Amino acid sequence: MPALILDGRSLANDLRAELTARVAALSEAGVRPKLVVVFVGANESSLAYVRNLERTGARVGIDVAVDRLAGEATASQVRERLEELRDAKHVHGVMLQQPLPPHLAIREIADAMPVHKDVDGTHPTNQGHLAFGSGTEYVPATPAAVMLLLERSPHWPLRGRRAVMIGRSIVVGAPVAMLMLAQDATVTILHRESSSLQPHVKMAEVLVVAVGSPGLIRGEDLMPGATVIDVGTTLVDGILRGDVDYESAVTVAGAITPVPGGVGPVTNVALLRNVVKAAERAGC
Known about the structure:
Layout: E1 4-5, H1 8-28, E2 34-40, H2 44-60, E3 63-69, H3 75-86, E4 93-96, H4 124-132, H5 141-150, E5 162-166, H6 173-182, E6 186-190, E7 206-209, E8 227-230, E9 234-236, E10 239-241, H7 246-249, E11 255-256, H8 263-282
Parallel strand pairs: 1-11, 2-3, 2-4, 5-6, 5-7, 7-8, 8-11
Antiparallel strand pairs: 9-10
Helix pairs in contact: 1-8, 5-6, 5-8
């Protein structure tokens, strides 16, 4: 049987329709949801992501403003800007675009994020709630997108499933692992210091890969019928490639996300869902 293609564009369309209705209800109450993206430097991949976010916001009626800071901005300057946004009345969501320039460490800045506007789950308090499984206000956008796609897979619900997360970043890997644990999956986390990816990958009913290493996982590495979520996006000779070799994996997997067209389109909408949630709570 050919693999089920977990089409992120189709899912994003469904989610946008839901968002449009919620934004319309807010508009009737005199509320226009607004997101401010604090952007340090000029990372090309980040610029493309933010442009897509602006376009998606415009389609559903959400204001997306980009607050640009120079690439040499200090941690104190970034913190100051985030703290100013805490009291901005008509700003409902705040996001610090990552990756940051090499001289900035997110751990030096994250606690300056306004907790109740932290729509990408960056603040240590929100990360702590996620880790404890006690309910964070906002699930980070990319991990949320992974879970939304898993809900459409043959392996949902995840209860009792053997799941492998390759990558342990605080942006994707660790939150996704925690979210799968919260769904009662049996989760193994692999990373660059792991002695080997096997036999863990071959035993995984659900595999999520987020390391930025094109073609790391091939079809022969997979359990036949596995659900594969590829978060990786790397430009190779002008072509966007995932961490999974799609051509070989699609003949073995039971369900798989393409790159592009998988996790990416859902990430934008997942973030904007959090912005709408913040606006609904604020009511102004």
